[in-house]
Amino acid sequence: MPIEPARLEILSALARKVLWLSSWTIHHANHIRPHSDGLKVGGHQASSASLATIMSALYFSVLRPEDRVAVKPHASPVFHAIQYLFGRQSRDKLENFRGFKGAQSYPSRTKDTDDVDFSTGSVGLGVAQTLFSSLVQDYVKAHGWMKDRPEGRMIALVGDAEMDEGNIFEALLEGWKHGLRNTWWVVDYNRQSLDAVVREGLWEKFEAMFRNFGWDVVIVKYGTLMQAAFAEPGGEALMRWIDACPNAMYAALCFQGGAAFRKHLRDEIGDQGAVSQLIDKRSDAELIELMSNLGGHDMASMVEAFESIDHDRPVCFIAYTIKGIGLPFQGHKDNHAGLMTVAQMEKWRAAQNIRPGREWEKFEGLSQEPAALDAFLADVPFNRDSHRRLNAPVIEVPERLSFNPTAQMSTQQGFGLVLNEIARGETELASRIVTASPDVTVSTNLGAWVNRRGLFARAEKADLFRSEKIPSTFNWDFSPKGQHIELGIAEMNLFILMSALGLSHHINGERLLPIATLYDPFIERGLDALNYACYQDARFMVVATPSGITLAPEGGAHQSIATPLIGIAQDGLASFEPAFVDELAVIMGWAFRHMQREVGQGGSVYLRLSTRTIEQPQRMMTQDLQTAIAEGAYWIRKPGPNCDLVIAYSGAVAPEAIEAVGLIGENRRDVGLLAITSADRLHAGWTAARNLRRDRRGLPHLSHIEKVLAPLPRDCGIVTAIDGHPAALGWLGSVRGHRLEALGVEHFGQTGTIDELYRHHGIDANAIIDAAEGLTAGAPVRHRKMAV
Ligand SMILES: Cc1ncc(C[n+]2csc(CCOP(=O)(O)OP(=O)(O)O)c2C)c(N)n1
Ligand SMILES: [Mg+2]
């Protein structure tokens, strides 16, 4: 339905205002704000302008409060300008765009205060997140939750060069498998990337690809001015010329202006007849207005395109735009970092009827009555609900998670057992857990959980092997009540799904407790997605097995070395590497609670587990021990007052550390054995305590590791061992100034048995003993572990 003229007029005026405010925000940051030197804002002005109309159409007309949007990173100023008009963004923050605590360069859920739905910045990730958020919404609805809220559409504003990111293609395939709905991607087809002009005919590839994955494709190429001109005599020739014009040429002419277009059009399609007349009856200004009236800059075309969608199938809109539209560098291939000069801005300001000193006034320069604009904005559907950031109650987690112990187990096995126990109960915790794995469900030990809880799909699908009565260990039934989401191998998808599931309490008002399982080395494959999931404060648990060289027979290529360091360094992710299953059960309980803590206190959790079967300790799990395990370390063998050696280990090398302490203990009595369950938590606690002490706020505070190491004499040596990079534990020596030798793995790729590899990399009992002897002056150790 054509849009009402009065509404169109107001929407177009608001779009002009958004372009102005976003450009002024950037200009202010570069030229006006004191000390703005060094903060030169590239990449925003041209890139933002591209989307001013499309985003205005969405936010001021099309969106409903339940819709969620991932905004192209460089359109952040447009987003902030729109929120400013809604009264949800302060002038102060806009004036401080890209400054400390100001509006963020790229829309940020956690750092911005104007209701960003998805953090973007690393191109491609936000796009895919809308797809997974839609699947999560389906999941939540299918489980009978979110009853009082309508389904939202998940919308991404996508740069055309952003489409190069492989994770988008990976997500498309996954969306197709899961019957994706309610997802719109709007490609800002300005045919420019950061460096250059994109390839000719890219849209055809997009169109074919999206259709191939079951999406509808809507191409919005010509604005209403163009369409009217095409209907004039000679109009068809003009349309053919536009269609045939190479991207770079079109961009160059947009930069050069009306006169340049006229020359080209005359030379190429001038006919001394209807076509020439069509061109000549327009002034240069009118001609450039016509030629830059591509669909993406035409409010009527965009609103109509969006409003014409009356189904829930996914839709890709390809909206033709000009990068930098309306600004002096529109279309120029170098415009990504382009900034208006002060003189250019002055000229543009005058053209916009904006008086000096009134640049931030909401309706300055618009011909409509401010009261009418205010009333319009107050009535915008999207603006009717200002409580879009939802929350959900905390799910109770039992004091202690139980499992069926056996004498010899691996932590991976233990993980399966703990989940299996949860799965058996009819608890709220059990119902809110949702698992996902990139084609390694069975090999990461989720099988028992899936057998009990089933796979998720909107439509029932029985396991054919079961219905055919073919014996199988696994029950692969799909149903809307299933709690495991089967994913293809792509790890990026896994982490983006975690990001979507882990924000469900904020987005759908329904809390989920997501668990991802994968092989430890492949965390690196999805690392940026994991990073962004943490950045937007999504809450989930990553359980990674097998890990390190301990996966020995699995093959050298799958050995992970760097992941303990990732666990330490990744913001928003608490990482653990337990050795024993009773520790793991404590950590999982802690994790479910940590995943539900308030913003700023909780976070996600990463468990680096192992497939190595080791002997389990028979012990009472006391409250003190539980606390110490969650804080990151406890003494297995407490050092005495004359201790001159401590062996500290993490994870699967526990038997080697224990054996070394036993052998050393034959000659020396006072040797300590320290179990480190979380180098990350220890390090974070240590840093936090130092910061507190430096600020001199409150009482002197000692961190857990400082307290643990406090009784050690100054000349005590520490040997650390981990199946991972030695630096993960090497810092322990700095806590209280102890000499330390850090054993670990620095090279990967060699297969072998665990014994062979531990010896090869120097993390076996003998290597620990050698390191201890080199470090301390005590009696030589007579016994070594015998070669097997
Ligand atoms: C993963 C990633 N790689 C590189 C960049 C740097 N970068 C920012 S924008 C951009 C080009 C964007 O082009 P396009 O998506 O077409 O958006 P436009 O600027 O045309 O609006 C690049 C390479 C980034 N932000 N993220
Ligand atoms: Mg582009």
Gist of the model:
The chain is of the alpha/beta class.
Model description:
By secondary structure, the chain is α/β, with parallel strands linked by helices. Helix content is 42%, strand content 12%. It contains 34 helices and 20 strands. The strands form five sheets. Strands 10-7-11-12-14-13 form a six-stranded parallel β-sheet, sandwiched between helices. It has a five-stranded parallel β-sheet with strand order 1-2-3-5-4, sandwiched between helices. The protein has a five-stranded mixed β-sheet with strand order 16-18-17-19-20. α1 packs across α4. The longest helix has 28 residues. It binds thiamine diphosphate (TPP) and magnesium ion. Thiamine diphosphate binds next to loops.
Inertia-based shape: elongated
Percent helix, as a range, is 40-55%
* Oligomer state of the chains in this structure: single chain
Secondary structural class: alpha/beta
Distance between the termini: 81 Å
Main beta sheet: strand number and arrangement?
6 strands, parallel
Low-confidence stretches: none
Total strands: 20
The amount of beta strand, in percent, is 5-15%
> How many helical stretches?
34
What would the average pLDDT be, to the nearest integer?
95
Radius of gyration based on Cα positions: 31 Å
Features:
six-stranded parallel β-sheet; binds magnesium ion; 788 residues; alpha/beta; 20 strands; 34 helices; elongated; binds thiamine diphosphate; 12% strand
Give the helix/strand layout.
Layout: H1 5-32, H2 45-49, H3 52-62, E1 68-70, H4 76-86, H5 91-95, H6 125-142, E2 154-159, H7 166-177, E3 183-189, H8 202-212, E4 216-220, H9 224-231, H10 235-244, H11 247-256, H12 258-269, H13 274-280, H14 284-291, H15 299-307, E5 315-320, H16 342-351, H17 370-379, E6 408-409, H18 411-424, H19 428-432, E7 433-438, H20 447-453, E8 455-456, H21 464-467, E9 478-479, E10 484-487, H22 491-501, H23 504-507, E11 513-518, H24 527-535, E12 541-544, H25 563-569, E13 573-576, H26 581-594, E14 604-608, E15 614-615, H27 623-631, E16 633-637, E17 645-650, H28 654-665, E18 671-676, H29 679-695, H30 704-709, E19 717-722, H31 727-730, H32 732-736, E20 739-743, H33 754-761, H34 765-775
Parallel strand pairs: 1-2, 2-3, 3-5, 4-5, 7-10, 7-11, 8-9, 11-12, 12-14, 13-14, 17-18, 17-19, 19-20
Antiparallel strand pairs: 6-15, 16-18
Helix pairs in contact: 1-3, 1-4, 3-15, 6-7, 6-22, 9-10, 12-13, 12-14, 18-20, 18-26, 22-24, 25-29, 28-34
Bound molecules: thiamine diphosphate and magnesium ion.
